[in-house]
Amino acid sequence: MTEGQRLAVLVESLLFVATEPVSVGQLAGALDSSPEQVEEALGELEAALQGRGIRLQRMGDRLQFTTAPEAAPYVERFLGLGERRRLSQAALETLAIIAYRGPISRPEIEAIRGVNCDSVLRTLLTSGLIEEAGRASAPGRPILYAPTFAFLQHFGLQRPEDLPPLENEPTSQS
Fold this sequence. Notes:
- The chain has helices spanning 3-17, 24-31, 35-48, 72-79, 89-101, 106-113, 118-126, 149-154; strands spanning 22-23, 54-59, 62-67, 104-105, 130-135, 143-147.
- It is α+β, with helices and mostly antiparallel strands.
- The strands form 2 sheets. Strands 1-3-2 form a 3-stranded antiparallel beta sheet. Strands 4-6-5 form a 3-stranded antiparallel beta sheet.
- β5 and β6 form a beta hairpin.
- α1 packs across α3, α2 (24-31) crosses α3 (35-48) and α5 (89-101) packs across α7.
């Protein structure tokens, strides 16, 4: 076994026992390796997981194992989770804005949607699909919202970059 393969096995073991998303730095620290070596091991691990029931999910510098999106209904039935709660149109619109523009503040979301978003934000926070991601430097230091790992899992994404591209808005001809 090469040193790279050995490191990939160790990274896989740590991700398997992690109870929450971990950073590349945390993995590197636990393995006495450099972040670059861990990234290389993650690449090997991700390639090995192609077409399998476990996926490596990334959000920024944090990562975790998840089940394959196509297995979701079977996993839910096996765990007795029942039907997923449907999101309202307002929640989906707000969630899309946060996913594509986040981290973003409530006033910015409301400027885009044109309506108050307090209750929708509370619902999305409670469901774990969004999280507070700091404060803006604008007056009043409004809270910034960003999508969570649960958001990625809910929509079957491995990383935020897997979101479908936004359609370009039509340009006006003069």
